[in-house]
From TrEMBL:
<keyword id="KW-0479">Metal-binding</keyword>
<feature type="domain" description="Heme haloperoxidase family profile">
    <location>
        <begin position="12"/>
        <end position="220"/>
    </location>
</feature>
<keyword id="KW-0408">Iron</keyword>
<keyword id="KW-0575">Peroxidase</keyword>
<dbReference type="Pfam" id="PF01328">
    <property type="entry name" value="Peroxidase_2"/>
</dbReference>
<feature type="compositionally biased region" description="Low complexity">
    <location>
        <begin position="15"/>
        <end position="24"/>
    </location>
</feature>
<dbReference type="InterPro" id="IPR036851">
    <property type="entry name" value="Chloroperoxidase-like_sf"/>
</dbReference>
<dbReference type="InterPro" id="IPR000028">
    <property type="entry name" value="Chloroperoxidase"/>
</dbReference>
<dbReference type="GO" id="GO:0046872">
    <property type="term" value="F:metal ion binding"/>
</dbReference>
<comment type="similarity">
    <text>Belongs to the chloroperoxidase family.</text>
</comment>
<protein>
    <submittedName>
        <fullName>Sterigmatocystin biosynthesis peroxidase stcC</fullName>
    </submittedName>
</protein>
<keyword id="KW-0560">Oxidoreductase</keyword>
<keyword id="KW-0349">Heme</keyword>
<feature type="region of interest" description="Disordered">
    <location>
        <begin position="1"/>
        <end position="27"/>
    </location>
</feature>
<dbReference type="GO" id="GO:0004601">
    <property type="term" value="F:peroxidase activity"/>
</dbReference>
């Protein structure tokens, strides 16, 4: 297989947004990096306006436009300019704004680079995907184990309620976008391809969903992952708040 970002593309399937002369930037979010790699949003990763993010999420993965607009608004939080109307993907690297500890594919900010794919952490995550069909329980196990690893290795680990919700959202997004919504599963090969190459897994037969991904869809899958996490951690775990639009950023932003 080719190296990260070098998988063979079916070029006719993707937009032809040109790469500008500026140095491209990427962030900790595999999904936005993916959309930039395909040209659904600016390939250089800069000046992401509302129109860029909304059209990119709608056209790239068929996310409902209102939900996409909310995610863009949340993305503005990483721009220090109070009058900002855009953000860059590398601004998402700011720790504990939207980026969080216990990522499935990135190091904690206190331990190293929090935005580049980390092979060792990815291997730690994928060892829990024990079959080609990855279930909610497998994703929940990955989530719990990554939190444990983060607590053990990072004395500054922040797993407050909102960060835990982001971790749960991170685990639910691949199922929501790439998986079988009825069964709440996703193919392991698809997961590995997407995380490694940050490209849409069309080579593996994936096509974006015919029906738009709505907030109710997100909440249903996220709720399944949350319930599985709760079962793993025991009945005494503090119940997390109801999931809403913001929790989607755990996997998309």
């Amino acid at each position: 297989m080719t190296g990260p970002g070098q998988g063979k593309l079916h070029a006719s399937l993707y937009p032809t947004t040109p790469l500008t002369t500026t140095t491209p930037v990427r962030g900790p979010c595999p999904m936005l990096n993916t959309l930039a790699n395909h040209g659904y949003i600016p390939r250089d990763g800069r000046n992401m306006t509302r129109d860029h993010i909304v059209s990119g999420l709608v056209n790239g993965i068929n996310l409902e436009s209102g939900l996409a607009a909310v995610l863009w608004q949340q993305g503005l939080e990483v721009n220090p300019d109070p009058n900002a109307v855009s953000f860059t993907l590398d601004q998402l690297n700011a720790h504990n704004v939207l980026e969080h500890d216990a990522s499935m594919t990135r190091a904690d900010a206190a331990l190293g680079n929090n935005h580049l794919f980390n092979e060792a952490i990815f291997q730690s995550s994928r060892r829990h995907w024990t079959a080609e069909t990855v279930t909610v329980d497998m994703m929940a196990t990955t989530t719990v184990q990554r939190q444990i690893e983060s607590k053990v290795t990072n004395r500054n680990c922040d797993l407050s309620d909102d960060k835990i919700n982001s971790c749960v959202g991170q685990a639910s997004v691949p199922i929501t976008v790439f998986g079988d919504l009825q069964q709440a599963t996703v193919r392991r090969s698809v997961l590995e391809y997407w995380f490694r190459f940050e490209r849409l897994p069309t080579e593996l037969g994936w096509v974006k969903k015919t029906d738009q991904i709505t907030l109710s869809t997100v909440q249903r899958i996220t709720g399944l992952v949350e319930n599985a996490v709760n079962r793993l951690q025991g009945a005494n775990i503090k119940t997390m708040r109801r999931h809403g639009r913001r929790d989607m950023h755990g996997g998309l932003f």
